[in-house]
Amino acid sequence: MTSIGIIGTGFGGIGTAAELLTHGYSDVRLWERAETVGGVWRDNTYPGAACDVPGPLYSFSFAPNGDWTRRYPAQAEILAYLGRVADQYGVTERTRFGARVVSARWDQDAWHVGFDDGTTESVDVLISAVGQLSEPSAPDVEGWESFAGTVLHAGSWDDAVDLTGQRVAVVGTGASAVQIVPRLAEVARELVVLQRSANHILPKPDGAYPDWYRDRAQRERRPIDWVTQQFSRGLDPDSTVATVIERLASAHLRLRVRDEELRRHLTPRHQVGCKRILFSNDYYPTLTRDHVRLVPHALAEVRPDAIRTADGPWHEVDAICFATGFDTQDFLHGIEVTGPGGDLHEAWSGGARAHLGIHVPGFPNLFLAYGPNTNLGGGSIITMLEAQARHIRATLDRMDHHGARRVQARAEAEQRWDDRVQHDLAHSAWASCTSWYHHPETGRITSNWPGGTHTYEAAVAEVHDEEFLWT
């Protein structure tokens, strides 16, 4: 019987485990560093945390949810949904909680997994479902250690902190910031928002579902999926879709912000789609409130009671809230992975890469969920994760068919895949500016898939024997 270990219990870990368990793989064990399942939806509890993909599409196809209370569900609802799915499919009972994986070493046809408490486990197959958005990132600026006030990060929020009546700085204006800023503005005495570059923001077609409609909301899945596929087409800078998105974002800004100087600061200077397109109805209005100030400059220095922005002025604050995202380039952060191919992080020194975003040559029986070049500019990541889970299960089926003990992608197959992906990315909007999608040293786009979810599903739907080594 094949033993399978999965690192992480977010959407990727739960979805992969459910796929394997429902297809006869019974020796499935999961390791979770926290005390509950949920991944980013357990960890991101900042004010206003919610999905920017409609709920009917942000759920497993094999476990539709009839309990969403609104079109764009909030963090607590998503976490509760994940918990129910994990319980229903036997994932929770197979999870070892409080188990932080620190190493994985291939030896004698098995992965030997080490934990931070000194214990080890061995499995035939190892699946990483740690994802791309698990390690919060913040800028390293002068005087940082001297700050005497409260410091928070969107990815590791302290719910016990009360910011009522305080002078608060929010660093960053990305996806989490557009949710945090309106909520903090309701309680802060003063709010200063630091922006390095403006983003394209579209209206958010959100709203509460009436009780009678909730179990019917899943009918929205197909039309929502069609709309999100168009966003993927908008990554082509010459497309009609890109022009439409640009015009919609510009009209939304003009409607919500009357002040010409503020509107000028909020006007993106990059091509639409190069950075993540955001959705919000209340972010722009919040920035026009009397006690809220947008500073279109980066954080430069910190002292005990204030921060200095790159344009020179100091701003006295009681708290700093970082909405600066995650370390997206260090895949499998904090885990030392060694196999016949050597040290995985050394192999990825110029940027992570994997065949189909799942297989790394030189590392047999290692699979990645939400691996390199599988992030999206439009659509639901859940669709990608389900496609990867099906592919992983099908690969294990083929391994059994061949009577093999191990499988790994051929280097030449991975190279062909990578050449195709990087060629398409070079002609996309993502290549036109600097963003978190790029490796900081090589500039390689390691995060994103250059297309829609349907093209990726087709690409990984079959296991082509000639692309792999079966031993």
What structural keywords apply?
471 residues, alpha/beta, five-stranded parallel sheet, five-stranded mixed sheet, globular
- Poorly predicted tracts of residues: none
Strand neighbour order, sheet with most strands = 3-2-1-7-20
For the record, give the distance between the C-alpha atoms at the N and C termini, rounded to a whole number.
17 Å
Mean of residue pLDDT values: 92
The total strand number stands at 22
Count of helix runs: 12
Percent helix range: 25-40%
* Shape estimate: globular
Largest sheet: 5 strands, parallel
Structural class: alpha/beta
Strand content: 15-25%
Any idea what the radius of gyration is? 23 Å
What does this structure look like?
Strand 1 (4-7), helix 1 and strand 2 form a beta-alpha-beta unit. Helices cover 27% and strands 18% of the residues. The chain is built from 12 helices and 22 strands. Helix 1 packs parallel to helix 10 (381-402). The protein is globular, with a radius of gyration of 23 Å. By secondary structure, the protein is of the alpha/beta class. The mean pLDDT is 92. InterPro entries: FAD-bind_Monooxygenase_sf, FAD/NAD-bd_sf. It holds the Pfam family Pyr_redox_3. It comes from Aeromicrobium senzhongii.
Structure at a glance:
The protein has 12 helices and 22 strands.
Topology:
Layout: E1 4-7, H1 11-21, E2 28-32, H2 40-43, H3 75-88, E3 95-97, E4 101-106, E5 111-115, E6 120-123, E7 125-128, E8 150-153, E9 167-171, H4 177-185, E10 190-194, E11 201-202, H5 221-233, H6 240-256, H7 260-265, E12 278-279, H8 283-287, E13 292-295, E14 299-303, E15 306-309, E16 314-316, E17 319-322, E18 336-339, E19 342-343, H9 344-347, E20 366-368, H10 381-402, E21 407-409, H11 411-426, H12 453-459, E22 468-470
Parallel strand pairs: 1-2, 1-7, 2-3, 4-18, 7-20, 8-17, 9-10, 9-17, 10-13, 11-12
Antiparallel strand pairs: 4-5, 5-6, 14-15, 15-16, 18-19, 21-22
Helix pairs in contact: 1-10
